[in-house]
Amino acid sequence: MKLPLTIIAAAMPLAACNKGPDISVKNASVGEVAEKVREAGGSGSFIDPGRWETKVSLLDVDIPGMPPQMQQQMKQHMASMQEHGYATCLTEADVKRPKEDFFAGKNKECRYDHFTMSGGKIDAALRCQGRPSGAMTMSTNGSYSRDSYEATVAMDVSGGEGGMKVRSHSEAHRVGVCTGDEINAKTATAGK
């Protein structure tokens, strides 16, 4: 559950740019999207490396078939895990040449139905097959600037024991240089 939220929160700062790239792809692999972001950045980067602080707010959770009392307990538990936020350290390499796994972890079964980043807006829909818990779709809609972003993420996991739907809202800001106590961007996408 934490992995997709972390992926989006970690990947979004790569998209930040005042003038903005103009990326629009459909039915693209995670690697193809990463390459488009690298191409749009040229030899520079869209953002400065450093410490990014992210706050994720859980908006709602729906788990069909789970008794309401257990759903409420799960919502409270998930909300308490997210309420404190976290810090990520983006290195020079992270912002200049994002790797494929930076956008969707190690799952090679993910594809973007569409990925659009232009004019300070981002709109993306990711679909992942072959997960032990079932298929997952995730949509991201938000806005960005050079030093901040905000996005709403809707995730739908089907299969497994009935699936679940989760909506969350993320906000992040670059706050300065890395201090060494952040989650490394590579660690964040590896499922930490």
Structural summary, described in words:
This protein is α+β, with helices and mostly antiparallel strands and 192 residues long. The protein has helices at residues 2-15, 30-41, 68-82, 92-96, 101-104, 185-189; strands at 23-29, 50-62, 86-90, 110-118, 121-128, 136-145, 148-157, 164-176, 183-184. The protein has one domain. It is built from six helices and nine strands, in the order H-E-H-E-H-E-H-H-E-E-E-E-E-E-H.
Question: Nutshell version of this structure?
Answer:
By secondary structure, the chain is an alpha+beta fold. It is 29% helix and 40% strand. The protein has a nine-stranded mixed beta sheet.
Q: What percentage of residues falls in helices of 4 or more residues?
A: 25-40%
* SSE sequence, one letter per element: HEHEHEHHEEEEEEH
Radius of gyration: 16 Å
Question: Roughly what fraction of the amino acids lie in strands?
Answer: 35-45%
**What's the total count of β strands?**
9
**Low-confidence spans:** 1-19, 185-192
SSE order and pairing:
Blueprint: H1 2-15, E1 23-29, H2 30-41, E2 50-62, H3 68-82, E3 86-90, H4 92-96, H5 101-104, E4 110-118, E5 121-128, E6 136-145, E7 148-157, E8 164-176, E9 183-184, H6 185-189
Parallel strand pairs: 3-9
Antiparallel strand pairs: 1-4, 2-3, 2-8, 4-5, 5-6, 6-7, 7-8
